[in-house]
Amino acid sequence: MSGETAGQSRNRQNDAPAGEQPVAIIMGSQSDWETMRHAAETLEALGIGHDCRIVSAHRTPERMFDFARGAKAAGYKVIIAGAGGAAHLPGMVASLTTLPVFGVPVESKAMSGIDSLYSIVQMPAGIPVGTLAIGKAGATNAGLIAAAVLALSDAALAERLAAWRAARTAAVAERPE
Amino acid sequence: MSGETAGQSRNRQNDAPAGEQPVAIIMGSQSDWETMRHAAETLEALGIGHDCRIVSAHRTPERMFDFARGAKAAGYKVIIAGAGGAAHLPGMVASLTTLPVFGVPVESKAMSGIDSLYSIVQMPAGIPVGTLAIGKAGATNAGLIAAAVLALSDAALAERLAAWRAARTAAVAERPE
Amino acid sequence: MSGETAGQSRNRQNDAPAGEQPVAIIMGSQSDWETMRHAAETLEALGIGHDCRIVSAHRTPERMFDFARGAKAAGYKVIIAGAGGAAHLPGMVASLTTLPVFGVPVESKAMSGIDSLYSIVQMPAGIPVGTLAIGKAGATNAGLIAAAVLALSDAALAERLAAWRAARTAAVAERPE
Amino acid sequence: MSGETAGQSRNRQNDAPAGEQPVAIIMGSQSDWETMRHAAETLEALGIGHDCRIVSAHRTPERMFDFARGAKAAGYKVIIAGAGGAAHLPGMVASLTTLPVFGVPVESKAMSGIDSLYSIVQMPAGIPVGTLAIGKAGATNAGLIAAAVLALSDAALAERLAAWRAARTAAVAERPE
Amino acid sequence: MSGETAGQSRNRQNDAPAGEQPVAIIMGSQSDWETMRHAAETLEALGIGHDCRIVSAHRTPERMFDFARGAKAAGYKVIIAGAGGAAHLPGMVASLTTLPVFGVPVESKAMSGIDSLYSIVQMPAGIPVGTLAIGKAGATNAGLIAAAVLALSDAALAERLAAWRAARTAAVAERPE
Amino acid sequence: MSGETAGQSRNRQNDAPAGEQPVAIIMGSQSDWETMRHAAETLEALGIGHDCRIVSAHRTPERMFDFARGAKAAGYKVIIAGAGGAAHLPGMVASLTTLPVFGVPVESKAMSGIDSLYSIVQMPAGIPVGTLAIGKAGATNAGLIAAAVLALSDAALAERLAAWRAARTAAVAERPE
Amino acid sequence: MSGETAGQSRNRQNDAPAGEQPVAIIMGSQSDWETMRHAAETLEALGIGHDCRIVSAHRTPERMFDFARGAKAAGYKVIIAGAGGAAHLPGMVASLTTLPVFGVPVESKAMSGIDSLYSIVQMPAGIPVGTLAIGKAGATNAGLIAAAVLALSDAALAERLAAWRAARTAAVAERPE
Amino acid sequence: MSGETAGQSRNRQNDAPAGEQPVAIIMGSQSDWETMRHAAETLEALGIGHDCRIVSAHRTPERMFDFARGAKAAGYKVIIAGAGGAAHLPGMVASLTTLPVFGVPVESKAMSGIDSLYSIVQMPAGIPVGTLAIGKAGATNAGLIAAAVLALSDAALAERLAAWRAARTAAVAERPE
């Protein structure tokens, strides 16, 4: 990816026809992008195509409905959804699709994302959302667990994922400095 | 209401044509009724018609969509929504109607309703949910604030509400025993 | 509102005779204004008259008593009350009027508004306060739920509110950038 | 006090003319008495006269106003106030008197008294409430700190308090069994 | 599965050679089974083979190491891990495999599973654990999200999953009773 | 106090013989002074003599023991104790004297003073600490409740306290700006 | 230890001259014994002598002072201290001795031991308390970490500890039932 | 240590053959060093040799396994482990050695170290981790409790530790300034 920013790379992928990508990254608002771009960058580093969309459960409920109802037909395999505060996006999308949905609690102002976490993770029996950590770490890990899911039927990706993990392991210094 | 239980009274009201009632009480599951019936009983005590419905954001998202989208046309003035855990019902309904929506956090098992409260009250700017206390007190108060709203254009109801409040005040004993 | 600041607009409205406005916005101290002005600005954007007052439950309990006892006679329809910490203003005003009261938990220093939230939302059965989110989002939403209540008997306002909501929906971009 | 229950003793003291007692114990509802009676029993054990009153900030705001405004003139020296949930009674009474006010957070259902504690202790600068522990321990200690305050100008009481404390110390066994 | 209990079914499946099952359900101790059996029952209802194992991160760290290191080779596709308190099992297993790992926070005694939740969900960037709700609902949903993952490459399972979801939707009554 | 800083005033009062002051303000470390000076300034504004001392429960337990055991004999009437984190100073001093002790939870780094609050307020039955709010507001209020206690037997102080309160009330503006 | 209860064994050990035991188990009140006996039973299982004492920081501060000041001279090597609520015992003892002190947060009523935990673990720099989990698990583990410390200079104990751990590992079943 | 920085001193000690040091300080990542260096500096001030290592439970699980399994043979007496978020390092190391392990919860971003604390302290019965305070204070105290343990069989160290404590006590000023 030499000579390009992550943003350039993402835009180019977004020019691909909708549904050609296995992963959809959706978020409740533009302000969530600062967090959710870490999911996108992780997927890029692993060579996994993805679309990034703003889909607000509260401001654009019909867009959300259409997106979620059509996600499987559009060819998506995995959905990553990030939202903050009373974060309803991951759970509502999960209620409208049988695709696996992973939720990222975005850090909120007053409650530092505790509200986001509880709103996402405490789903009732019947509608699962695989929830990751609050904030940037969670967004990165949403990309990684999506990769792990896709790697189950993509041996080449499985190798890239294993290599990515091995590189991270190798990068841990022996001593602090 | 002599000789009838609250339940009988409710059922009879529910036999009225949908939309003839000013208040809709919706809840995510049958198990929420133990809490939400206090909203119904409060409305009954004040002589306010109401429908009680199970509308699950997660298990019946389309029923929820249809309900919320059609609530105004159906003649409802106020919506009371109760849910527990990752409680998305009040906020999602609020995103789909401009009617005033009041949310009741139902007490959950592990988190005692803290998750319900945060999921309901921490709505982003743009979509309000007037949130009441966790549990039975909140359900009763949802009925009362609905009454206060309706009383703005119903002088007889305003008198009944004032009388109800006065009776409660008069019932407070001077000393504990 | 071209050529004026929100502040100028507010001041002009405040020059109107008390009680000519349907909404009262009250707050515990000057420092709450930074939060509560978002309620005022929302009401202005929707063309709803309002008074802004400092009414401290703790420092001016008699002013609070007089305000709340006289609110209905003064012509107010809805009261929005913001306070932080041991936030007693919304609940105390609600105990002194049958008008609908909406509470905004102002973010506090040590507890980030969790104390404000619990002090406002956990009202006992009998005295409801419709509580919004902590901070700015809650103040904006207090304005919106007040509008939703008033729109029940004001078709023109109902149209403005629907238009405001539609504009917000239309403003959501398709993709993050 | 042989041959009488604490209740009988309390009732007898309550027959004394109002204001003859140095301590007022007030609480938001009858249900708080199970907690607050420990304050009364502690005062009785120390021979300190007291009145027990139900004064609800929310259901009887005018009774509260009258009580607090008149407390000093009625001869009270110290006020103990217990309440649960959005517990406004201690702080509101403190805003209406310059007498020392001690608050007892009564254990609430969903939040186990955390809401009561925050609502009582997080008072803004200007109006103090000396807050004790949640529940029975707090009620007992409210009685004890009232005693400590009164003992500053009552040497005999100071001796009784010291003796009470010494007896408690002496009652601690050396080893568990 | 007529005429058998879920337990019988599970035992029979457990008699199958290790690694013939696509899902491993592991838990930190026997006491977690009361929660985790809901994952097993959900998988059974969907006709998904699974092994149930006790693997304690703390008491049997080497068993855990061996299990996690060998999980992929043993033929597992998805791992469901439940644990309570300082719940290290899901995260540690995730650190030792690239298979997708789903974590279930088991309700703990003093903290009701908040400690379990934080210990599982707050993983650092690099090692994802898709976390479900505390307790029984989370265990059920772990089974469902495992099914969603496996259904990506198993059309028959996708149909069974869709049917299961539709049946749940259809089972929601219209009104509470 | 024209022409002097609060600090100069305090130092001068501290030159008075120990025990000539009715109030002792103690704190666990120098870093608590930034908070606790608000107690000192409040007492000064009310003309109440006071000593300010660093007494660490953990680093100087014997100084604490000597201070608390000798506080009554030294002429103190009221003790104000501030501490942060595992804040043991107020409770330990209270265990060693029968004087009224007021505790101020100093804001801590990681937990924002929640740890300080719980460590101070949750005293067991038998040893009361009248606890104020976290941080500066609590320190100011500790000064005020000390004043309220001393005013019970000092009519001039009672007048000054009432005047201070009245001035605060008068200073509340009518409208935000 | 066949034919004896743990209690009998403990009593016998307690008949040994004070100071002949390497571990002191102290607790704030008799009611803590239900928790702390798990520390005693663990030490017994490992053949480590110990004394069990009630030492209340708040009710018997001088007993605590004497105990802590004299603990090293009395021959103790390790101190285990359990307390609940505003739990000051472990930290205060640690401030009075240089022996290693381990703290056990006893589960409290309203806060389930969160207050105990924060009061024990959040010690300021300079005075360490090695804190274990809330309740029974923490008490057991306090015994085990005391054993680990003593085993550093007692090879036979190290073997017994390793055997105890191995037996626990061996007792973990392969599958839940 | 005149003329050297703590860093130089540490590096020199780290040049010693592994296992010649009685204390190992391990941490999950380089970013934890800012906290954990306070443990190292405390040990240096007390003249206690130590190794500082980065050992990530999640990124280098095998390094962790090897370290913990070999710690006793390598000559370590005490292990200090710091980690943040879902902090599994202290507990996992404790599961793999019978040496005493002390855990330091490193302050995390969204949850300020509450997640770290719960993940470390809430260990199940059988595997103890002596947990210190969140952040820098906890790291310093981990060094001190390690010193207390080692001082049990090192009289010279016991004297240095007592002197260090005495110097800290002597450094507490009498009055704030």
UniProtKB/TrEMBL annotation, chains A, B, C, D, E, F, G, H:
Specify the protein name: N5-carboxyaminoimidazole ribonucleotide mutase
Q: Which Pfam families match?
A: AIRC
Q: What class of enzyme is it?
A: isomerase
Q: Which of this chain's residues are annotated to bind substrate?
A: 29, 32, 59
Bias (Polar residues): 1-11
Record InterPro entries: PurE_ClassI, PurE_dom, PurE_prokaryotes
Q: What is its EC number?
A: 5.4.99.18
Quote the gene name from the UniProt entry. purE
Q: Does the keyword Translocase apply?
A: no
NCBIfam families reported in the protein's UniProt record: purE
Identify the SMART domains for this entry.
Answer: AIRC
